[in-house]
Amino acid sequence: MKRNTNTSKLTKAFIESRVSQEEIVSKYLNIPLEVVRDCVEHNHLITSVFRDDDTDGSMGIAYNAKGRLKVRDFGGAGFFDDVYGVVAYVLSIVYERPISTNNKQDFYFVLSHIYRTFSYEIDNHINDYDVDESIKNALVKARNKKAIIEIVPRSWNRQDKAIWAKLNVDLNYLNTHFVIPVEQYYIDRVTNPTPKYKDAKNDPCYAYMLGRNKSGVYLIKLYFPLRDRTKELKFVTNCNVLEGLPNLEREDYDYIIITKSSKDRLSLGSHLSKHTFYGADGKTLNIGVVNLPSENYRLKANEYTWLKKRLNNEGMIVSLLDFDRTGRDGADYLLETYGIPYLFITRGEFGLENYECKDFADLHDKFNNDEIDTFIKETIRYVEIRYRKDKSDTDAYFKRLSDCDLPY
User: Fold this and answer.
1) Domain match, 20 and 112 both
2) Are residues 154 and 134 part of one domain?
């Protein structure tokens, strides 16, 4: 028997008395209901449905203390909202206009759309249009579109200087390596004119300018160093690319080091820029540094080829990732796929040397510059002896790839 519902009085309570929050998320994210429930029950993460995501786990679905189901994308532009925010986001793409649950008319539109989408479950009505198809198309469009991040720069201040000094990075180095202090930033400003952030002393923000894609969109990663990553997003980005490429200006590097974070890249790069290191032949070494966008990222073939072109004839790429399970897996992948040897900073694991630091940036908390110089010189000698005397050619396959510009 049909129930006649007065849709002018639609409320969240009415919707949720007929359809669960989990069913709404399942429908509007186009993922199976059992996957949603698995995330909720076991705190599992899934691949983001909002963007082109190379990782296996960057989106979470969980209830908060008030019983509201929340969806959080830990990468990309940092989506974090309840089920109605999810619906509003998807409908903004479907109808190509901003739809916000903070707007009364928009919120009613969201409720009405949910009602129509689940009309069979609610009132035994059959849809006269294909809602599923419009949702699927919207999510495909979202994955193919780069968010436009716009920043309003501010001047450097003493707090900035102190934050970066802990990593032994000065402001001049940041200026020449495309790091900008942020006053405000916007995401897709045309449809979302309200700034997503305003500068605050307890929450500074820095923009890593990483280049532009073929469509001319600026690739940006925003970094919030004082945030607790368990409570807030520490990074907001519109890309997932190898970082630091605009500063690889030479084509005769002796070494290019792949680190696991922007922080390590800047700390290591800054140190190398202030100190001179020599190879076994007594010549000054040219060393470049790049970093993976995340610990789970897998280097692409065209990225590897691009890096190889920046080396001299005897040049070598090496990795310096964390010595945890994720870092070791990543280092193994680079070795097995591209023949890239690995280096680690260890903390006494498996009886290895204990530097009491997990990465290069941490070394400045415990050691002075002279001691760090000694570590680098010892590492260079180790690499020269172990790898340069018996260096096999692992590039036969990749030589078939054509020349390329920045690989994104």
Assistant:
1) yes
2) no
Q: Are 289 and 265 in contact (CB under 8 A)?
A: yes
Q: How many CB atoms lie within 10 A of CB 295?
A: 16
Q: What is the pLDDT along the chain (408 residues), one digit of tens a residue?
A: 344 445 556 899 999 998 999 999 999 998 999 999 999 999 898 888 887 766 657 789 999 999 999 999 876 666 889 999 999 988 988 888 888 898 999 999 999 999 888 887 777 665 544 567 888 888 887 777 778 899 999 999 999 999 999 999 999 999 999 999 999 999 888 767 889 899 999 999 999 999 998 888 899 999 999 999 877 889 998 888 999 999 999 999 999 999 999 999 999 999 999 999 999 889 999 999 999 998 889 999 999 999 999 999 999 999 999 999 999 999 999 999 999 999 999 998 988 889 999 999 999 989 999 999 999 999 999 998 887 654 444 343 333 333 445 566
Q: Is residue 3 part of a domain?
A: no
Residues contacting 358, CB < 8 A, separation 6+: 322, 323, 324, 345, 347
Do 295 and 388 lie in one domain? The reply is yes
pTM of the model: 0.74
Q: d(Cα 89, Cα 91) in Å, to the nearest integer?
A: 6
Residues 211 and 253 in one domain: no
Task: Tell how far CA 159 is from the center of its chain.
Answer: 25
Domain check: are 263 and 116 in the same one?
no
What CATH number is associated with residue 264?
Answer: 3.40.1360.10
